[in-house]
Amino acid sequence: MNSAKRQREPASDKVGTICRALRRAIIEQALEPGTKLPEDALGERFGVSRTIARQALGQLAAEGLVELRRNRIAVVETPSWQEARNTFDVRMELERLVVRQLAGQLSKAQLAELQAHVDQEDAARNGPDAVSIRLATEFHILLAQMTNSPILIRYVSEVAYRCCLTLSTFSRPHSSDCGITEHRAIIDALAKGRTEDVMTMMHHHLDSVANRALVAPTKPRTRDLVDILAPYADDGEAAPHKPKRSAAA
Amino acid sequence: MNSAKRQREPASDKVGTICRALRRAIIEQALEPGTKLPEDALGERFGVSRTIARQALGQLAAEGLVELRRNRIAVVETPSWQEARNTFDVRMELERLVVRQLAGQLSKAQLAELQAHVDQEDAARNGPDAVSIRLATEFHILLAQMTNSPILIRYVSEVAYRCCLTLSTFSRPHSSDCGITEHRAIIDALAKGRTEDVMTMMHHHLDSVANRALVAPTKPRTRDLVDILAPYADDGEAAPHKPKRSAAA
DNA sequence: GCCTTTTAAAGTGCATACATAATAGGCCGG
DNA sequence: CCGGCCTATTATGTATGCACTTTAAAAGGC
């Protein structure tokens, strides 16, 4: 018997459960950027104490999905346009590495799994945007997982999730068609082992996704008026958000 | 009267303090891979409760520096050869991106800062290996920081630290000379804005570091007899020490 | 004497308690 | 009617306690 251990861990992995639930809720935009995540509420909802909820929030903060400020309620991260741009840049390099490692290396079964996933995407094309976006994201994560490189898997997952957040923040209506055909083209190129081609394709694919998402540095789809006011404040005055109590003077 | 000052910041970031301390101890090889890190001991050493120590360990685990198994004492991660290889692969792509973004963009002050850092490396050349390794690592992190891309900074820092871990595990005696000259060459190319050149140089630099570190997939420099026995155990028997009562041969 | 079984020590998993900082709403003066 | 201080509420930061698991050691049998 091989020394490889099975990785099952249902051993009451409460923190992991909460993280997965929140991640999914975030990428499906059930939790929009800026949504508050009080420890008590999370704990109660998942039937655990604040201790566990807090650990989950810490984890998600480390992944860049949650913003954690001292003595303040945790909120879903609201990536700035520049951060989104940076994330996409990193993502491109990482995913180029993924397909470079994968080109010509995939088994029949793996290729079939990828095809099946894109079929799912196809089926969900007329469903809600949230599901389409999630499936599209999971396609990229699935690719990463096939590299068997834990660090690549982790990083690609993280940037992919963060890009979803970006979509929540900046995107215009999602059109998934082109994305799906590009996914199919990538699978095909991977199967044929055309390394250079598939790297280029992945690059263009992510570039188009980024361009669709990051049409302009503006467009903070209003949810918090501070967001709207930020640029104006920057322009006109030195102290944008002024503290109310400067009374002592 | 309670308001008064707006304390800028470091409001008792206990977790961060412990993380930094442990990170540094790890990259200076004061804590070798496999070293146990009991929560109690950490808490006592840093004057905090287990709760805080535990959070720090969770954070470091998320960064891949610490291995956290359920109901077991946390230990400094022992990267496998394959994981180390994967880490270096990712690192190369990320750092190529760093220098691509930086080429021709650095201010005089930034270039001076880089030069100063390499001077430090030079000064430490005859000192202990641990310091040389730390400084060499911090050079790469310093570069990443100049991109102003939080995610790039975080990822480069993480992979750089993990590569240090790898050195702890696999390396032969450290020779820092070539590394330093390469660092200087990279600064020069960055200043001159030779984007392609500097990307190639960074690639070769990291490649040589990797090759020096990962000479062969074997050579677990003994620190724990379990490590020595592992390959033999795999070959001959399923369980090296204490086979529980799993009769399954 | 060596291997197995028993048992105590040590450590983690988790919840809860308490102190402190932030926030929202009420009260009062203008 | 509005704006600012004050307080009650809320939420976080941290420590501690208890139950359960693992680990190490001691005891006992072959």
Secondary-structure blueprint of this entry?
The structure is a homodimer of 249-residue chains.
Chain A: H1 14-27, E1 36-37, H2 39-46, H3 50-62, E2 66-67, E3 74-76, H4 81-102, H5 108-123, H6 129-145, H7 150-170, H8 177-192, H9 195-213, H10 225-236
Antiparallel strand pairs in A: 1-3, 2-3
The structure holds a DNA duplex (30 and 30 nucleotides).
Q: Which second-level CATH architecture of the largest domain in chain A applies?
A: Up-down Bundle
Q: How are the strands of the biggest sheet of chain A laid out side by side?
A: 1-3-2
User: Approximately how much helix is present in the residues of chain A?
Assistant: 55-70%
Q: Report the biggest beta sheet of chain A as strand number plus sense, adding barrel if it closes.
A: 3 strands, antiparallel
Q: Identify the quaternary structure here.
A: homodimer
Overall geometry of chain A = globular
Distance from first to last alpha carbon of chain A: 76 Å
CATH fold naming of the largest domain in chain A: Four Helix Bundle (Hemerythrin (Met), subunit A)
What number of structural domains do the residues of chain A give?
2
Cα Rg of chain A = 20 Å
On the 0 to 100 scale, the average pLDDT of chain A is: 83
Find the structural class of chain A using helix and strand composition. mainly alpha
**Mind telling me the CATH superfamily name of the largest domain in chain A?**
GntR ligand-binding domain-like
